[in-house]
Amino acid sequence: MAKTPGRSDLLAAPNPASPQDIRNVVLVGPGGAGKTALFEALVAARVPGQRTGGTDHVRTTRLTVASFESGGLTVNLLDTPGYPDFVGDLRAGLRAADAAVFVVSGADDVDRPVSLLWRECAAVGMPRAVVVTHLDQPRADFSATVDTCRRTFGDVRATHWPVIEDGAVRGVVGLLTGETSAEHEDARAALIESVIEESEDVTLLDRYLEGETIDTESLLADLRTAIAQGTFFPVVPVSPTTGAGVDELLRLVEQAFPDPTRHPLPAVTTPAGGAVKGVACDPSQPLVAEVVRTTTDPYIGRLSLVRVFSGTLRVDEPVHVSGHLGDFVGHEVAGHPSHDDDERVGPLASPFLDGHRPRGTAIAGDLALVSKLTRAETSDTLSSCDRPAVVAPWLLPEPQLPVAIRAATKSDEDKLASALARLVAEDVTMRMEHSSETEQVVLWTMGQAHVDDLIEQLADRYGVTVTAEPYRTALRETFVRRCSVQGRHVKQSGGHGQYAVCSLEIEPLPRGAGFEFVDKVVGGAVPRQFIPSVEKGARHQLEKGLLTGHPVVDVRVTLTDGKAHSVDSSDVAFQTAAALALKEAANASTMALLEPIDRVDITIADEYLGAVMSDLRGRRGQVLGTEPADSMNDGVATEGGWTVVHAEVPQAELSRYPIDLRSVSHGTGSFVREPARHDLLPADKAKDLLG
User: Do 375 and 339 form a contact (C-beta atoms < 8 A)?
Assistant: First the structure.
């Protein structure tokens, strides 16, 4: 491979001639399984001079991409975070790839979230393979791990077996191609039977059962076809430390993983929702591409990782940018407003870890980095200006963990708004709101690690220091008993004075009734032109609150009597008198606080149902009912053994629920929520607030 002109430290970008020369592969799996170490070992095996990062790896929080040549093909390898808080980058990696490698530890069990991800890939027909790492650890057992994978994932089979000497993996043996021994015979026989079952040759099984020796090349051909079709799932032992199994895995990628033409395209429509013709993984067709991730480089500026589904992306060519995320999720998404713009494509590059290798085009099926694409955000579609298109975005869970932040200094405050706007546009799993009631800037996130990462980004990338503070729920005040009061506003200070007296009767209304004003004045005690002033003053004071500064709801105010002056009465005077009357009526015996109640739907594995129900009781939650879960949970396929719990829970008790539910359910639970109503805050919790 030739060096890039002017860049002696990087090899030239791969330049695939057709989509058939491309392999897009994503590494997925739990945190700590060794994905990043495997990623580095795979890259180092094919890129001269590239080194691995050693044995110490920090937790991956970002999608990392490396494009390199392997066996005459272009491999776009994607490393995803294993921690659930960074699901946005995981989803982006799945969207950009055509096949997935599940990385599991040979020294640990396969957890439930990984099995859910496997089923999700199965639902879209994505070919998969399993890599077993950490086989050099004392309690590691490759055979037991394969059995666990079979119970968890289904029909997976080992295609290679590790050679372990002195506690280290020194090599791997191909069960079809290597020199196997007696210890491998059972695994080899099981593999052959599985391959034969997947073969398109219907006579092969009978011939095998009759004792005929099946040609190895025929078996390998059937094996590769089944892997590419996503009907057979190989298990390969790999040691990133010693390099054992790395070449075998790369050959599997080259020879058995599908090219982009064999992967189904996502749904594509016009911005108006109509059909789009001619979309295919073909460089000659109209352009359809998607921004799967957006970042900001301190030297280059904005960088967009783009997956080209159809056509060819070219430098300096005008493209249409469509963003309609809100149309798919059912509500407007902060930082992602619906838009349709034309923009010229900036410099293109092949992604390679932290380096960028310039290129002129990116054909259908390939990945590319686009610089300075100012109007495109994550999940936006790039298409031909004369044939605008919209790609249906990938499914993402709603962020459910709120954290309130405030700028540390006035200087930080001046920069905070623009920095947050940039982060929201880049991260589709983050939502921001500014609450006028609590006067807090609230970030809705996926979990505590996500919170910590966002705060770190604000400091490192934008020089903004923020501190987190307790998230406050927006309460309401209400009257709980009937009372009668008089508001009197009489002032004389030269010139026209101010005179207004109004008698009000205040009574509570049922929950959700809102505010009601009734006029029962007789005999003209309050002139007709000032009655709307009384209502206006009452409404304004109720909106500001009476005891705690929270709005007053579910109350009827009746004007029963009053007095006016022919000269000194005015609109403002009667507004003030009404406000004074309400303040007079407000005290701890006449009023109570209402807290917001959310309706929550929790999807949970049956084995954790009891723990979840118990936890809900501790949160003052009311369980409304349960039902078996549908076949899909947040886009993840489920296969029985799951329950949806419907409940109502005070919003204040949900502020840390994403973290607690993950703990209670061992990472398997998920929930959605929506506002239901306001209800009385228990007296012990309201006492301090009401004084």
Answer: yes
Strand 355-359 relative to strand 348-352, pairing: antiparallel
Contact call for residues 542 and 485 (beta carbons, < 8 A): no
Contact 573, 488 (CB under 8 A): no
Q: Under a CB-based contact definition with an 8 Å cutoff, are residues 9 and 47 in contact?
A: no
At residue 450, the pLDDT reads 94
Rounded CA-CA distance 688/691 in Å is: 5
Rounded to an integer, what distance in angstroms lies between the CA atom of residue 422 and that of residue 94?
A: 23
Strands (E), 1-82: 3-4, 7-11, 22-28, 64-70, 73-79
pLDDT computed for residue 250 by the predictor: 97
Q: What angle is formed at CA 159 by the lines to CA 155 and CA 162, rounded to 5 degrees?
A: 120
What's the pLDDT score for residue 214? 81
Strands 670-680 and 591-605: antiparallel
The dihedral formed by the CA atoms of 622, 624, 625 and 630, expressed in degrees to the nearest 10: -100
Q: Across-strand partners of 680? A: 594
3-class SS letters over 289-305: EEEEEEEEECCCEEEEE
**Which neighbouring-strand residues pair with 362?**
313
> 640: how many CB neighbours lie within 10 A of its CB?
8
Given a cut of 50, the residues of the chain with pLDDT beneath it are 1-8, 631-638
Helix (H, G, I), strand (E, B), or coil: what is residue 649? strand
pLDDT at 253: 97
Contact 281, 364 (CB under 8 A): yes
Strands (E), 106-185: 128-133, 156-158, 160-165, 168-174
Distance CA 356, CA 521 (A): 78
Q: How far apart are the first and last CA of the chain?
A: 76
- List alpha helices for 586-679, DSSP H: 609-618, 657-664
Q: What confidence tens digit (pLDDT) does each residue in 524-554 have?
A: 899 999 999 999 999 999 999 999 999 999 9
Residue 253 in contact with residue 247, Cβ under 8 Å?
A: no
For position 57, what pLDDT does the model report?
60
CB contact at 8 A, 313 and 383:
no
Task: Locate 5 and state its tokens.
Answer: 């002109």
Residue that is written with structure tokens 């949900």 in the block: 654
Residues in the chain: 691
> Buried b / exposed e across 445-469, counting CB within 10 Å, b at 16+?
bbbbbbbebbbebbeeebebebeee
3-state secondary structure 340-406: EEEEECCCEEEEECCEEEEECEEECCCEEEEECCCCCCCCCEEECCCCCCEECCCCCCCCCEEEEEE
In angstroms, the Cα distances linking 137 to 40, 247, 320 are 20, 22, 52
